[in-house]
Amino acid sequence: MKSAVLLVLLVAFTEGLVKIPLFRGKSARQALEEVGLYEEYKAQYPQPRLQRGLKLNNVPITYDPQVTYYGMIGIGNPPQYFKVLFDTGSADLWVPSLNCTHYSCGNHARFNRSASSTLQKGDGDFTLDYVSGYVKGVTAYDTVLVGDIYVVNQLFGLTYSGGSFLRYMPWDGIQGLAFIGASALGGTPLFKNMWNQGRITQNQFSMYLSKSVEGSALILGGVDEQYFTGPVNWVMVKEEDTYWTIQIDSITINGNTVACSGGCLAIVDSGTALITGPTRDIGNINGWVGAYQAGGDQASVGCSNVGVMPDLVFNIGGNAFHLPASAYVLQHGTSCQTGFEYVPGSWILGEVFMRHYYTVFDVNNSRVGFALAV
């Protein structure tokens, strides 16, 4: 508990901004591989994340076994501290309940309802279904602490069971940062309540994702110029009140259109590790960069080839966002894979893209900004 409190206290304040440190932990996939369970999990759940963009009855949220970034929040009075995934692809907050004895809650902090003087009961039970599993729990209202920002009467979920691989996630729960229309619990998202309750000076937040274990940050209330160089290039959101969805005009390599011909929609999602898209387009990209499919979810490349592989260029809103091979090739030990994966539905620009581009989410103006990360 002491270490959790120290993490929360490591909050920086610059010109009205509140900076929440994000930490890059071991992914659930790495943890499952270490105990020899990843292939078993993958066979049980061959599609490890929700098919976003399709008209499904499932909850539009991502459980990605490769996501690694998390930060600290407190819930209740006095605060109980949790590591959460700050997920721009969902809108709800949930953490495990003290009453959870399910395997999925193992290794995680759990919320003790009787220890909070400000807890109020919610409307009852909920179930969130996912392609990769589920969570079940009850809703409640309480005070939530993010940095030094207190949000009162915040709706959240307390889970008592869930998908088995959640046990191996580096975080305890999820804090959604999408629009209210993406809320599965039906409440006002935390960030909107921050603004409604006058806790922030600008209705914006931004993210810097470092390649290192430490150094990443969620910035509440605007942008922090120490994390990027050059201008912030703005793109309007296409699906207001749901996800941070933008229009990609095309994806090119050396001037040749290799994917997204004629334009496509993409969700900017910190809850997804890779860049995902339709099978044909991802296969075409991998072919152009010299990758080969050797089984598994991603295509492989020779690690020695990274220096000569081409940039992948995302043409968005009149700007060309170059993604070099050093950004889209991921090395695991002595092997290298591209950070692209086939997933039906909308394109998703996940951690692979957001590590290279500092990303600003402007709620008031329904737009996303990208600037070259330092």
TrEMBL record:
The keyword Transferase does not apply. Residues 69-371 form the Peptidase A1 domain. Keywords: Aspartyl protease, Digestion, Disulfide bond, Hydrolase, Protease, Signal. Disulfide bonds join C100-C105, C260-C264. Its EC number is 3.4.23.1. Residues 1-16 form the signal peptide. Pfam families: A1_Propeptide, Asp. It is an enzyme of class 3 (hydrolase). The active site is at D87, D269. Transmembrane segments: none annotated. GO terms for biological process: digestion; proteolysis. PANTHER family: BETA-SITE APP-CLEAVING ENZYME, ISOFORM A-RELATED (PTHR47966), PEPSIN A-3-RELATED (PTHR47966:SF22). Shows particularly broad specificity; although bonds involving phenylalanine and leucine are preferred, many others are also cleaved to some extent. Belongs to the peptidase A1 family. This is pepsin A. It comes from Gadus morhua (Atlantic cod).
